[in-house]
Amino acid sequence: MPIVEYISKLIVRRAVWLVLCSLVLGIFFSNISLAYLLPLIPVFLAGMMGSAGLMITMRDLFRSGINVSKISIILASQFILSTSVGFILALIFFNVISDLPNLALGQVLHGAMPSEQTTPVWIRLTGGNTALGIATLILSTIASPFVSPVMVLLFAGRWVNLEYMLMFESLLLSVMLPVVVGSFIRSKYNAMARYDNVFSAASILFALPTVAIVGALAASFLSLQPLSIVLLAVVASLAHFVSTLLAGLAISKVLRWDALDTPVSIYNLSMKEFTVTLGVITMTGLEPEVGVPASIYGMMHMASAPIIARWLYSTQIRKNTS
C-alpha cells in the first residue's frame, strides 16, 4: 500500500489546488457538469460522508471530552439561527424586492444544512479545539435528517410545496447512514486507523465533482439572469455568510468560552455543507436554480476559510505571547 499512501498524502497536500481546478473546470464546462455530474450528487455525497465516518469511532467521539452544553448551543444556533437569517433575507430579497421563489427556497434550504465536512481541518489550522470541532461536525451531520426538513418546511413552505418524508429520506440515506456505517466499520476493525490518509483523500476526491457543480451553477445563473438579479443573489448570500460568521464569534465572546472554542463556533455556524444542499435538491426533484444560493455562499466560505484561519491563529499567538 505504499503507493496508495503516497498518492493519498499528495491529494491531501494539494487539496486547495484541486478544489480551485475543479471550480474553474465547472465554470468553463458548466453544461457538461450540470448534465452529467449533478445527477450523481447523491453518490458523491454518500462517498464523502462514508469517508468521514471511517475516520472516527463513536467511542472516540465521546472519549474526546464532549461538552454537551457547548455543542447544544452551537447546533441550535447552526440550525435555528442560520435558517431564520436565511428566511429573513429570502423574504427581503426574493419576495419583497423581487419574486424569485426558487432562490428564496435555496436561501432557506442552505441555511438549514449541517456543518461542512472540512471544518475540523480549518479548526486544527487555527490551533483550536479540534476534538470539540469533530464532535460538533458528527452530531450536526447525524441530527440533520431530523432537524433540517422541519426547519425548511417551517420557513420555506410559503414558497414551495415540499414533502417532509422525501427530504428526510434523502438526508437519511445520503448523509446520516454513510457516516454511521463508516463509523461502525471503523469501530469494528481497528486496522482501519492506519488508512486515515486514504479516507481523507477519498473524501476530497468525492468532494471535487460537487465543487465543479457549484461553479457550473454559478456560471449558468450569471449567464442567464440580468445583472440586477445576480447582484441580489450575491448580496443576499454575502449577508447570510457574514451574519453567521459574526454570530459564531458573538456566541463565543458573550458566553466567555475559551479562545480555543471560538473557531469551532465560527466555522460550524458559517460553513454549511453545500454538497448536502445539492444532494437534497437532486433527490427531491427540485429545480437546479434552487442550488444557486448554496453555490454562491459555498464559494464565499471556501475563499474566506483560510483567511479566517490565519486571523484566528495570529490572534491566538498574540494572546499566548502577551
Structural description of this entry:
InterPro entries: BilAc:Na_symport/Acr3, Bilac:Na_transpt, Na+/solute_symporter_sf. Keywords: Membrane, Transmembrane, Transmembrane helix. It is a multi-pass membrane protein. This is Bile Acid-Sodium symporter family protein. With 322 residues, the chain is mostly helical. The chain has a single domain, classed as Na+/H+ antiporter like fold (Up-down Bundle). The protein contains 15 helices and no strands. The protein is globular, with a radius of gyration of 19 Å.
CATH class: Mainly Alpha
User: What is the 3D form?
Assistant: globular
Number of domains: 1
The share of residues in extended strands comes to: under 5%
The parts where pLDDT drops under 50 for at least 5 residues are none
* Largest pleated sheet: none
What is the count of helical runs? 15
Distance between the termini: 47 Å
Please state the average pLDDT score.
85
Q: What is the chain-wise order of helices and strands?
A: HHHHHHHHHHHHHHH
Query: Rg, please?
Result: 19 Å
By secondary-structure content and strand pairing, the structural class works out as mainly alpha
